[in-house]
Design goal:
Radius of gyration of chain A: 14 Å
Strand content of chain B: over 45%
Radius of gyration of chain B: 14 Å
Shape of chain B: globular
Structural class of chain B: mainly beta
Structural class of chain A: mainly beta
Largest sheet of chain B: 7 strands, mixed
Largest interface: A-B, 19 and 21 residues
Number of strands of chain B: 11
Number of helices of chain A: 0
Oligomer: heterodimer
Order of helices and strands of chain A: EEEEEEEEEEEE
Helix content of chain B: under 10%
Distance between the termini of chain B: 37 Å
Shape of chain A: globular
Number of strands of chain A: 12
Number of helices of chain B: 0
Distance between the termini of chain A: 41 Å
Strand content of chain A: over 45%
Chain lengths: 115, 117
Amino acid sequence: GDSVTQMEGPVTLSEEAFLTINCTYTATGYPSLFWYVQYPGEGLQLLLKATKADDKGSNKGFEATYRKETTSFHLEKGSVQVSDSAVYFCALSDLLGGGADGLTFGKGTHLIIQP
Amino acid sequence: GAVVSQHPSRVICKSGTSVKIECRSLDFQATTMFWYRQFPKQSLMLMATSNEGSKATYEQGVEKDKFLINHASLTLSTLTVTSAHPEDSSFYICSARPPQGTNYGYTFGSGTRLTVV
Protein backbone atom coordinates (compact mmCIF):
# COMPACT_ATOMS: atom_id res chain seq x y z
CA GLY A 1 0.00 0.00 0.00
CA ASP A 2 0.87 3.65 -0.01
CA SER A 3 3.14 5.09 2.64
CA VAL A 4 4.98 8.27 3.52
CA THR A 5 8.19 8.44 5.50
CA GLN A 6 9.48 11.71 6.87
CA MET A 7 12.25 12.59 9.23
CA GLU A 8 11.22 12.52 12.83
CA GLY A 9 11.80 15.43 15.10
CA PRO A 10 11.88 17.47 16.91
CA VAL A 11 14.04 19.56 14.65
CA THR A 12 15.44 22.57 16.46
CA LEU A 13 17.00 25.44 14.51
CA SER A 14 18.00 28.99 15.12
CA GLU A 15 16.17 31.81 13.42
CA GLU A 16 17.39 32.46 9.85
CA ALA A 17 18.82 28.97 9.52
CA PHE A 18 18.24 26.84 6.42
CA LEU A 19 15.59 24.17 6.78
CA THR A 20 15.23 20.78 5.12
CA ILE A 21 12.65 18.22 6.15
CA ASN A 22 13.02 15.00 4.20
CA CYS A 23 10.04 13.11 2.86
CA THR A 24 9.96 9.97 0.73
CA TYR A 25 6.99 7.97 -0.41
CA THR A 26 5.82 4.71 -1.88
CA ALA A 27 2.68 4.58 -3.99
CA THR A 28 0.99 2.17 -6.34
CA GLY A 29 0.10 4.86 -8.85
CA TYR A 30 1.21 8.37 -9.67
CA PRO A 31 0.33 10.34 -6.57
CA SER A 32 -0.12 14.00 -5.82
CA LEU A 33 2.13 15.18 -2.99
CA PHE A 34 1.42 17.67 -0.24
CA TRP A 35 2.93 19.41 2.73
CA TYR A 36 0.57 20.41 5.50
CA VAL A 37 1.37 22.50 8.57
CA GLN A 38 -0.30 22.22 11.96
CA TYR A 39 0.10 24.99 14.51
CA PRO A 40 -0.49 24.15 18.17
CA GLY A 41 -4.10 23.31 18.91
CA GLU A 42 -5.23 23.81 15.34
CA GLY A 43 -6.19 21.76 12.33
CA LEU A 44 -4.09 21.28 9.24
CA GLN A 45 -3.40 23.91 6.65
CA LEU A 46 -2.20 23.14 3.18
CA LEU A 47 1.28 24.61 2.77
CA LEU A 48 2.08 23.52 -0.77
CA LYS A 49 1.50 20.75 -3.25
CA ALA A 50 2.73 19.21 -6.48
CA THR A 51 0.83 16.96 -8.84
CA LYS A 52 3.44 15.71 -11.28
CA ALA A 53 7.13 14.98 -11.58
CA ASP A 54 9.49 17.96 -11.43
CA ASP A 55 6.70 20.24 -10.24
CA LYS A 56 7.81 22.64 -7.54
CA GLY A 57 5.30 23.72 -4.95
CA SER A 58 6.02 26.92 -3.06
CA ASN A 59 4.35 29.07 -0.45
CA LYS A 60 5.48 31.45 2.32
CA GLY A 61 9.13 30.89 1.43
CA PHE A 62 8.81 27.09 1.61
CA GLU A 63 9.53 24.95 -1.43
CA ALA A 64 9.35 21.28 -2.34
CA THR A 65 10.06 19.58 -5.65
CA TYR A 66 8.36 16.37 -6.78
CA ARG A 67 11.20 13.97 -7.56
CA LYS A 68 9.82 10.84 -9.16
CA GLU A 69 13.22 9.23 -9.64
CA THR A 70 13.97 9.35 -5.93
CA THR A 71 10.32 9.24 -4.79
CA SER A 72 10.93 12.27 -2.64
CA PHE A 73 9.30 15.58 -1.80
CA HIS A 74 11.67 17.31 0.60
CA LEU A 75 10.55 20.57 2.20
CA GLU A 76 13.02 23.47 2.25
CA LYS A 77 13.14 27.05 3.41
CA GLY A 78 16.10 29.34 3.12
CA SER A 79 15.63 31.34 6.32
CA VAL A 80 13.25 30.18 9.01
CA GLN A 81 11.44 32.37 11.49
CA VAL A 82 10.14 31.73 14.99
CA SER A 83 6.63 31.82 13.56
CA ASP A 84 7.45 28.74 11.46
CA SER A 85 7.48 26.62 14.61
CA ALA A 86 4.82 23.96 14.02
CA VAL A 87 4.36 20.34 13.01
CA TYR A 88 4.81 19.61 9.32
CA PHE A 89 3.17 16.66 7.62
CA CYS A 90 4.09 15.22 4.26
CA ALA A 91 1.18 13.49 2.57
CA LEU A 92 0.14 11.87 -0.68
CA SER A 93 -3.07 11.23 -2.53
CA ASP A 94 -3.13 8.33 -4.92
CA LEU A 95 -6.76 8.46 -5.96
CA LEU A 96 -6.09 9.10 -9.61
CA GLY A 97 -3.60 6.25 -9.60
CA GLY A 98 -6.24 3.86 -8.40
CA GLY A 99 -5.22 4.07 -4.78
CA ALA A 100 -7.41 4.71 -1.79
CA ASP A 101 -9.30 7.96 -1.40
CA GLY A 102 -8.16 10.41 1.23
CA LEU A 103 -4.62 11.26 2.21
CA THR A 104 -1.81 9.11 3.51
CA PHE A 105 0.27 11.04 6.02
CA GLY A 106 3.77 10.81 7.30
CA LYS A 107 4.22 10.88 11.06
CA GLY A 108 4.89 14.58 11.17
CA THR A 109 8.00 16.57 12.02
CA HIS A 110 7.92 18.97 14.92
CA LEU A 111 9.94 22.07 14.03
CA ILE A 112 11.14 24.39 16.76
CA ILE A 113 12.74 27.68 15.82
CA GLN A 114 14.64 29.48 18.53
CA PRO A 115 15.21 33.25 18.46
CA GLY B 1 -12.34 28.98 -1.62
CA ALA B 2 -12.85 25.41 -0.33
CA VAL B 3 -13.29 26.28 3.34
CA VAL B 4 -14.27 23.61 5.84
CA SER B 5 -15.72 24.54 9.20
CA GLN B 6 -15.64 22.10 12.11
CA HIS B 7 -17.59 22.49 15.32
CA PRO B 8 -17.13 22.36 18.26
CA SER B 9 -13.45 23.07 18.65
CA ARG B 10 -13.38 21.65 22.16
CA VAL B 11 -15.77 19.46 24.08
CA ILE B 12 -15.64 17.78 27.45
CA CYS B 13 -18.16 15.05 28.16
CA LYS B 14 -18.85 12.48 30.80
CA SER B 15 -18.08 8.85 30.25
CA GLY B 16 -21.04 7.03 28.73
CA THR B 17 -22.52 10.02 26.93
CA SER B 18 -22.47 10.74 23.20
CA VAL B 19 -20.88 13.66 21.40
CA LYS B 20 -21.60 14.95 17.91
CA ILE B 21 -19.00 16.75 15.83
CA GLU B 22 -20.02 18.67 12.72
CA CYS B 23 -18.04 19.30 9.59
CA ARG B 24 -19.36 21.76 7.02
CA SER B 25 -18.09 22.79 3.63
CA LEU B 26 -18.85 26.50 3.48
CA ASP B 27 -18.38 27.48 -0.13
CA PHE B 28 -18.46 24.25 -2.08
CA GLN B 29 -20.28 20.96 -2.21
CA ALA B 30 -18.37 18.09 -0.71
CA THR B 31 -19.57 14.72 -1.90
CA THR B 32 -16.79 13.06 0.04
CA MET B 33 -15.46 13.94 3.46
CA PHE B 34 -12.97 12.18 5.67
CA TRP B 35 -12.63 11.81 9.41
CA TYR B 36 -9.22 11.53 11.01
CA ARG B 37 -8.08 10.94 14.53
CA GLN B 38 -4.84 12.30 15.89
CA PHE B 39 -3.19 11.05 19.05
CA PRO B 40 -0.78 13.32 20.91
CA LYS B 41 2.43 13.89 18.98
CA GLN B 42 1.38 11.42 16.33
CA SER B 43 0.17 11.53 12.79
CA LEU B 44 -3.37 11.57 11.53
CA MET B 45 -5.06 8.23 11.14
CA LEU B 46 -7.93 7.96 8.70
CA MET B 47 -11.00 6.65 10.50
CA ALA B 48 -13.60 6.67 7.76
CA THR B 49 -14.64 8.06 4.42
CA SER B 50 -18.02 9.72 4.37
CA ASN B 51 -19.99 9.80 1.12
CA GLU B 52 -23.07 11.93 0.72
CA GLY B 53 -26.21 9.85 0.62
CA SER B 54 -24.56 6.53 1.35
CA LYS B 55 -22.96 4.64 4.20
CA ALA B 56 -19.53 5.59 5.39
CA THR B 57 -16.56 3.37 4.70
CA TYR B 58 -14.60 2.61 7.83
CA GLU B 59 -10.94 1.77 8.07
CA GLN B 60 -9.89 -1.48 9.60
CA GLY B 61 -10.04 -1.44 13.36
CA VAL B 62 -12.51 1.45 13.63
CA GLU B 63 -15.76 0.52 15.32
CA LYS B 64 -18.61 1.77 13.16
CA ASP B 65 -21.13 1.39 15.98
CA LYS B 66 -19.05 3.65 18.20
CA PHE B 67 -18.18 6.25 15.61
CA LEU B 68 -21.37 7.00 13.73
CA ILE B 69 -20.96 9.02 10.57
CA ASN B 70 -23.77 10.72 8.74
CA HIS B 71 -23.39 12.65 5.49
CA ALA B 72 -26.97 13.63 4.74
CA SER B 73 -26.24 16.69 2.62
CA LEU B 74 -23.56 17.92 0.26
CA THR B 75 -22.28 20.39 2.84
CA LEU B 76 -22.51 18.55 6.14
CA SER B 77 -20.97 15.44 7.63
CA THR B 78 -21.27 14.53 11.29
CA LEU B 79 -19.29 12.20 13.51
CA THR B 80 -21.01 10.98 16.67
CA VAL B 81 -18.91 9.31 19.31
CA THR B 82 -21.36 7.09 21.14
CA SER B 83 -21.01 5.93 24.73
CA ALA B 84 -17.74 7.77 24.97
CA HIS B 85 -14.96 6.51 27.22
CA PRO B 86 -11.72 8.15 28.31
CA GLU B 87 -9.77 6.23 25.68
CA ASP B 88 -11.84 8.04 23.03
CA SER B 89 -10.26 11.31 24.12
CA SER B 90 -8.40 12.59 21.12
CA PHE B 91 -8.18 15.27 18.46
CA TYR B 92 -10.62 14.62 15.61
CA ILE B 93 -10.20 16.36 12.28
CA CYS B 94 -12.45 16.31 9.24
CA SER B 95 -11.41 16.92 5.68
CA ALA B 96 -13.16 17.37 2.37
CA ARG B 97 -12.05 16.21 -1.04
CA PRO B 98 -11.52 19.22 -3.26
CA PRO B 99 -14.16 19.99 -5.87
CA GLN B 100 -13.46 18.45 -9.23
CA GLY B 101 -11.68 20.74 -11.61
CA THR B 102 -10.22 22.94 -8.86
CA ASN B 103 -6.65 23.36 -7.84
CA TYR B 104 -7.25 23.06 -4.10
CA GLY B 105 -5.70 20.45 -1.93
CA TYR B 106 -7.74 18.45 0.52
CA THR B 107 -9.17 21.00 2.93
CA PHE B 108 -9.24 20.41 6.66
CA GLY B 109 -11.40 21.61 9.48
CA SER B 110 -9.77 23.16 12.51
CA GLY B 111 -10.25 20.02 14.58
CA THR B 112 -12.18 19.06 17.71
CA ARG B 113 -10.44 18.29 20.97
CA LEU B 114 -12.58 15.69 22.75
CA THR B 115 -11.94 15.00 26.41
CA VAL B 116 -13.96 12.27 28.11
CA VAL B 117 -13.94 12.40 31.89
